[in-house]
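Customer escalation, tier 2.

The customer says the design service returned an amino acid string that "doesn't look like it belongs to this structure." They asked us to rerun it and document both sides in this ticket. The original structure tokens are below, unchanged.
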């Protein structure tokens, strides 16, 4: 993927939902994506929807089953192509829609690769310092959503470690821009949503339906 934007294209207005596995990013992203002019992109979901016979589908299975990240260039290319398809299908209109990213960028390199393509207006950091609570949430999700990477405690612990060592530094990448809002992820989902919406309401020039 090219690090620079094609001529004539503006960076996408973007909101990042950020947090550890199990912090509720998907729940919030999905809810936000139900509001007109907000388009949710959940990176893990797009990976899970890949045909596992393809090279990328195989790579996803291999890395995710170990609790590791899929390599950055592949991931950002997948993201870029998926967004282009959404634009072509009329499901994302970059000139009027907000892009809600959940699960990407997931390390500093991805943030750098994506930086010229997105204009990040808010980072919502869903925090849950109680690791046992996260693990309990993931195990519950394993049963409900048939997620293999949620079923095994060793893989869960590796994912939490990957989050601490690789993903958390993304916060430092955006820190100088002063866009981050920290939200207690142990609150009821509706209370988390309220705080996210308050953060969005502070932005200027909100899209009309
Ligand atoms: P969670 O945040 O609960 O771990 P996701 O569904 O977001 O779950 O991700 C599942 C797996 O998909 C990750 O463990 C990783 O292997 C892969 N993945 C998702 N997003 C990315 C990304 N941006 N970069 C690399 N790998 C990713």
């Amino acid at each position: 993927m090219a690090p620079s934007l094609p001529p004539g294209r503006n960076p996408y207005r973007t909101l990042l939902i950020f947090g550890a596995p199990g912090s509720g990013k998907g729940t919030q992203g999905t809810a936000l994506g139900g509001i007109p002019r907000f388009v949710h992109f959940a990176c893990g979901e797009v990976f899970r929807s890949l045909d596992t016979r393809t090279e990328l589908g195989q790579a996803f299975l291999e890395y995710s089953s170990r609790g590791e990240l899929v390599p950055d260039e592949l991931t950002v290319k997948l993201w870029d192509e998926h967004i282009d398809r959404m634009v072509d299908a009329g499901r994302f209109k970059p000139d009027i829609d907000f892009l809600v990213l959940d699960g990407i960028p997931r390390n500093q390199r991805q943030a750098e690769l994506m930086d010229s393509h997105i204009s990040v207006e808010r980072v919502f950091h869903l925090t849950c310092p109680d690791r046992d609570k996260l693990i309990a949430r993931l195990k519950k999700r394993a049963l409900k959503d048939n997620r293999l990477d949620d079923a095994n405690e060793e893989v869960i612990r590796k994912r939490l470690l990957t989050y601490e060592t690789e993903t958390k530094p993304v916060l430092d990448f955006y820190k100088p821009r002063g866009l981050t809002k920290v939200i207690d992820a142990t609150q009821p989902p509706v209370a988390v949503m309220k705080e996210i919406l308050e953060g969005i309401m502070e932005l200027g020039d909100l899209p009309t339906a």
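Tier 2 assessment: The sequence is consistent with the input. The beta strands are 12-19, 38-42, 98-102, 118-127, 180-184. DSSP finds ten helices and five strands in the chain. Sent an explanation to the customer and offered a walkthrough call.
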